Amino acid sequence: MKRTIELFKKYGLLRIIDKEVDIDLEIGHIAYIEVKKDNSKALLFTNVISKKLGKKFNMPVLMNTFCSFEATELLFGKKPDDIASFIDELLHLKPPKGFSKKIEMFAKLFELRKVFPKRENKRGVCQEFIKKDNEVNLYDLPILKTWSDDGGPFITMGQVYTVSLDGSKQNLGMYRLQVYDKNRLGMHWQIHKDGAHFFHEYKNAGKKMPVSIGIGGDPLYIWCGQAPMPNGMFELMLYGLIKEKNPRLVKSITNDIYIPNDVDIVIEGFVDPTKMEIEGPFGDHTGYYTLKEPYPVMDVTCITHKKNPIYQATVVGKPPLEDKYMGWATERIFLPLLKTTAPELIDYRMPENGVFHNLIIAKMKTMYPGHAKQFMHAFWGVGQMSFVKHAIFVDENAPSLSDYDKLSDYILNRISVKNILISEGICDALDHSSPGSCYGGKLGIDCTKDNVDFISKEILDDSKLFEKINNLDNNVSEIKQYKTNTKTPITILKVNKTKNVLKIYNNLKPIKKHTKLLVFIDKAKNDLENIYMLVWRIVNNIDAKRDIFLEEEFIGIDATTKNNIDNYTRQWPGDVECDKKIIKKLQNSNLINVDDEFLKKFYI
Ligand SMILES: Cc1cc2nc3c(=O)[nH]c(=O)nc-3n(C[C@H](O)[C@H](O)[C@H](O)COP(=O)(O)O)c2cc1C
Prior knowledge:
By secondary structure, the chain is an alpha/beta fold. It contains 18 helices and 31 strands. The chain has three domains: 2-313, Pnp Oxidase, Chain A (Roll); 326-447, UbiD C-terminal domain-like, CATH 3.40.1670; 462-566, 3-Layer(aba) Sandwich (UbiD C-terminal domain-like). Helix 4 packs parallel to helix 9 (322-333) and helix 7 (219-226) crosses helix 8. The structure holds flavin mononucleotide (FMN). Flavin mononucleotide binds next to strand 11, helix 6, helix 7 and helix 9.
């Protein structure tokens, strides 16, 4: 952490905040706003208190470590695309021809010895200070509460180290942890994750599961924790590959889990598989709260730390946030691995305002009929890619995947009911729009073919079209059209929902000659001019099987909040929002300096 801070200082990427700030909402809000800025910086809070606990902490808090593309590249020490090229080369190693090629390959393979973590038989730097049993007190750490409706304080950048029951596999996962009291944590490994798989092995064997949590050290540890490595592969091998040095591990004091020698803080303990407790709510990276659910509990047996540790944390919520930059590196580095199951894949993007798993746009070379649909099935069936809810495939002639304006024209000129596949499969545990937890609809759009007829539309201006719409159904309060120059003109409609949106869509069929794609959103908390946040809202709120209406090239998308009108029986979560009083206070004390326009732009 100290090296990271020096590095950031050198490159002007750090802001040090010496004013007194509270772990209760204040630090989270400051970091939340900072990382949304164009030129955002990492933040080091040196004067951290908790009014609620009546405490002043003697450790600083580092937020927004992955604050920008520049910072992310510095932390990796190289460009993510270069790491991807190296992985690609390794995956396609061919027998070398000629002596010099043999030497080259030997050198490459020799370098690979640095991938493997090394276990050291000594105390770690992370174990300079040790508190065991009754001395353990999680409230001695500046663990943040980031959102008003959160169930408590949460460790948000915890590296969770576990081993399989037979000891043959090690895992590092980034899972949040809720503080229940001074020595108990809620362990939020979701059902599909490796930590949860190991947990079931221990549960079946009736044994307590050892767990150690690292905080801090090289920021690449936490990045590796969120990387979607295949089951059974220890994420620290990826660390070794990227950093070209063996991760050095030491044994925890009170269990047998090995953790990196140089993390700042370690929390050790055991998860008793017979105990579950309510975890959450928590303002999550979807921009919505995840609601209360039972999760396993970790009993903490020991907390160790370095001399002068730094507590590292993040804040998640509505995009863009730190996970934008973490996710960008993941997207780039995992391209060659994805190509092993989808070889004709050229490139892909998972935009952060699609909350990663809610939207993927992929470019591919098509070789035969149905190729894009084959890829949809492949994606929906592979590891964490199978969480993807909405997938759009374009061919190699499409504009750059980064040029969203041109790309959306290209896609809209290829959208047709005949090119749409609606399927179902697993969903991320955080998904709130599917009718049941972790399972729901999937949408795939094959835009690799130019096979869409141009149906001339009589385009009206927004006010004229609204007049017509209002005469057909008065649930619609406002509209805005986009991309009327394409084969798929879009109309976004704000509704005051008093009935199922399908009924509104059916009433609006007479406007078919004016538009092709209707997207329904709630009247409240949406801005028709803000495309970035509209995309965020829309892809978050739809379950393809329930919410997409396809009829004769007149397509409806219901992206409204669902309730009993829609036979939705789960609880729909609220938006993650800053506390207005805290924002005012931080503005008054100059801890944040953004105007109302900025707050509006990001739905803060
Ligand atoms: C900021 C952030 C917070 C996350 N929080 C959680 C979490 O609380 N629970 C979870 O299961 N996954 C969470 N994830 C995703 C996992 O870290 C990711 O899926 C990882 O690949 C899991 O590793 P595993 O497959 O080894 O379990 C989070 C990711 C990020 C970037």
